[in-house]
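Re: export button greyed out
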Amino acid sequence: MNPVNYLYLAALLFTIGATGVLIRRNAIVVFMCIELMLNACNLAFVAFSRMHGNLDGQIIAFFTMVVAAAEVVVGLAIIVSLFRSRHSASVDDASLMKL
Amino acid sequence: MTEQLAAYSTSTGEAVQFWVLGTIAVIGALCTVFMRRAVHSALCLAGTMIVLAVFYLANGAYFLGIVQIVVYTGAIMMLFLFVVMLVGVTAADSLKETIKGQRWLALLCGLGFGTLLITGIGHASLGEFNGIGQANANGNVEGIASLIFTRYVFAFEITGILLITAAVGAMVLTHRERTERARTQRELAEQRVREGKYLPPLPAPGVYARHNAVDIAGLLPDGTPSELTVSKTLRERGQIRDVSQEALNDLRALEQRAEERLERTAVEPTFKSAYERSEEASK
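Workaround output, generated via the alternate export path:
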C-alpha cells in the first residue's frame, strides 16, 4: 500500500466534515464537524511527517490538538450561553449577534 | 525499481489495517453528519477519532496516538456529550429547509471540493518517502520533546497563554450573575396564601396498609381514589396504578378471615360502609 493513501483518507474526512458544516443546522453538530476537519488535517500532518522522515509534522499536529481543545472550550461555552438565552441550539435562530 | 517500490509501500498488515479501519472511519464520519440526533453524531465521531488514533500509532506517532485518545475521545468528546445533555438529548434537528435547495447545493459543493482535493493529491509529486524510523530512533516522545523545547519553544509558550485565555473565557461566558434577590421562605409562604393555593402538606399515597406504594392513589373517606395523593411527576407520566376492585376484595377477604380467627362478630361500621360505597361508586 502506498502511504499516500493516508492523505486521500484525510482529504475524504475533511470533505465530509466541510459538507456537514454546510448541511447541519444544530450548532453542536456543526461544531463536531469542525472537529472532524481538524482531525483530518492532523492525519495529513502525521502522514507527511512519516513521508519526510522528521518530526515537525507531528509537532504541528500536537499544536493543532491544543488549539482544538481551547476552541472546544470556548465554543461550547458560547453554545451553552446561546441556548440559555434562546432555548435552541439551532444556528438559524442565532441570526443576531446580541443575546 | 523493486527497491524503490519497497521503499514506497508499507507492509501487508498495515495495508489490511488501513482498508478495514479506513472504511470504519469514513462510515463514522458520514454517520456524524447524517445522524439526526446529536448524541448519535457524537458517538460516531468518537469512533472515528479512535480509528484515527490507531492510524497515528501505525504512522509512528506514538505520543500523538495516545494524546488523541486521552484528549480527543476522553476529554473533548465527553465535553460534547455533557453539552448535548445540557441542551437536551431528545431535541432532534428539524428537517425543514430554511433556504430552498441549500442541502443539494451543499452536497454539490462538498463533492466538488473533495474532487479538487483528491485530484490535487493525485497530481502532486510525492516521490519522497523516508519513513519515520530514523527520526524515532531515540524514541518518539524524546524526539518531540527536544523539538518542542528548542525550535518550537515560543509556539509552546504562546499555546500556554492561549489555554489560560480559553479557560478564563469559558468561565466568563458561562458564569451568570444573579440580577434579583432570592426570595425568602417567608415571602414564598405569604405569596402562596395570597394566591389561594393548596396550603397544608399533600395527603400521603397508598390504600390502607396493603398498598402504601407511591404510585397508587390514596382513597378518600367515601372510597374514591384521590389524584392529589400521587406525586406530580408520576401523574404527568401517567404511571398511576388503579385501585382495582380485585385488590379491595382481597383485602376484604383477608380482613374477614382475620375476624373469624379472632372470633370477632361485629365489623367496624366505618370500614364496611367505605367498602360498600366504593363498590357502588365503581358500579
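Chain B touches chain A through 83 residues (CB under 8 Å). The button fix ships in the next patch.
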